Fold this protein.
Amino acid sequence: MRRFISTFSLTSKQWGLLLLLPIFFSMSISYVITSYIVHGKAREVGNFNLERLEELLAQSESINQFAITLKEGDCGKLSEYMRFKPYYRGVILFNEKAMYCSSTAGDIDLPLNSLLPENKLADSAHYIVPETPARSGVPAIISISKNVETHRGSIVVIEGEYFVDAFIQPEVFPRLVSNVVLGLHGATLPSVPNFGDGEIISVLADDKEFVILLELSREFFRHFFWIYFGVSLPICFIIVLLSGLLFLRKKYRHSLADDIRSGIENEEFFLVYQPVICAEDGKSKGVEALVRWQHPQMGLVRPDLFIPIAEEGKLIVPLTNYIFERALKDFADMKVEPGFRIAFNVAPEHFTQDDIESKFIHLRDSLERIGVKPLIEITERQLLTPDIFQCIESLRQLGILVAIDGFGTGQTTLSLLQTMPLDYLKIDKCFIDTIGQDSVTSHVLDTIIELSHKMNYVVVAEGVETQEQADYLTSRQVHFLQGYLFAKPMKLADLKLWLVEHFKH
Ligand SMILES: Nc1nc2c(ncn2[C@@H]2O[C@H](COP(=O)(O)O[C@H]3[C@@H](O)[C@H](n4cnc5c(=O)[nH]c(N)nc54)O[C@@H]3COP(=O)(O)O)[C@@H](O)[C@H]2O)c(=O)[nH]1
């Protein structure tokens, strides 16, 4: 993870954006989800209550059916009939002259326009009226039925306020709806709606007659908004952070690839050399060339950071060619023991160049002039294909030594090793680290060494840090040792001094 994070550095603005974006997304998502849920719930409540109203109106129809059949002197029967009908304020009977019977007041004599303009009594319809003769100032829903032949009719009065007050809402806290208004033909119930500043949604009955207006409670919205915000924030935070980091990492890798390209042109790369020691006599028989990058802004950049980017960005070939040239320059005036070897790390991709043979002949001949033999360490991060095997074989025929580097960590299997044309096998540090431990991997080390001997490979152990490791490897006839126990990778000037010192003994 540290390595991942260290592959880019963010400005405080970018970090700020990475932290603010999840909050913004989470708030937007929570707002949309809460709105969706609150609206859905409010519609559910509205529809449910419209259905209740429809039922009341359907019952009104049957009350009207009963009432319309009563004779003018049967007012008492009407009171009896309406006794156990709780949602209804009462029923009024009328003829062409007046309203003459009320289920609550008995015989009455009220003008026909006591509830509505007279002509409206001609319709069989529903209305909201601001008051009734029985309860002045208290609105009601009325349902009219009239026999056009006899001119007699009945009006069922439904308790309007009771209906709205008993408006059923889900058992939630806080309440979903802070205000409810029933509307019909321009009249409302209550007569003067008392809406606050909450959002109002309308739910229309299926027959488009009644409409219910619901004012959503702000508390309910806030309550669920903060719940969704609490849940979505960590998720948004993780998603935005990861995608932001991946985006920036990609951008960074792109710009780093550009920097590698210009770094090669500006000769920002240089080599350090780590001696390789012969296990038998303790003498240095060569060095491994390891690239370093002095980036103009970032300072010294580690190869395990930029090599994979160079490999991804198809820059490893020009970089390796640059390294060869750089080593030739470094060693041009060096005096070394005959047969001294310089090992280079070469990615399999390098062998895809058209003029690969002439490039290696040039390297071989230039080094041979100063008594040095090149050794190519093939890094096995990528799969070694049969084509690459072919190239390895051609290299060996040119007299160039070939090693497989970091054996056991990449894609090369033990069985593949049996068919591979090789001179050296370099055992990875992770196997050397197991020396002295009774682990499964420590047995793998012995197997690799045994197999290498059988295949007549020269065995090199890398990452040797302790005398115990060196002794163990020497006892197992490992030919060459490389590691901090002997020397760390060093700049050319230090190597020159080290070699002088080393060969004195
Ligand atoms: N294609 C190329 N790859 C290259 C080149 N130069 C380096 N590399 C690859 O980068 C990786 C890291 O390399 P580096 O940081 O240089 O580390 C090397 C040694 O310093 C380190 N080492 C050697 N001895 C010890 C030790 O005793 N302890 C310890 N902790 N580290 C040690 O090991 C690295 C050598 O690795 P290898 O090449 O596998 O022998 C690394 O994968 C390099 O291959 C390049 O020019 N081209």
Remarks:
- The longest strand covers residues 284-295.
- The first helix runs from residue 2 to 6.
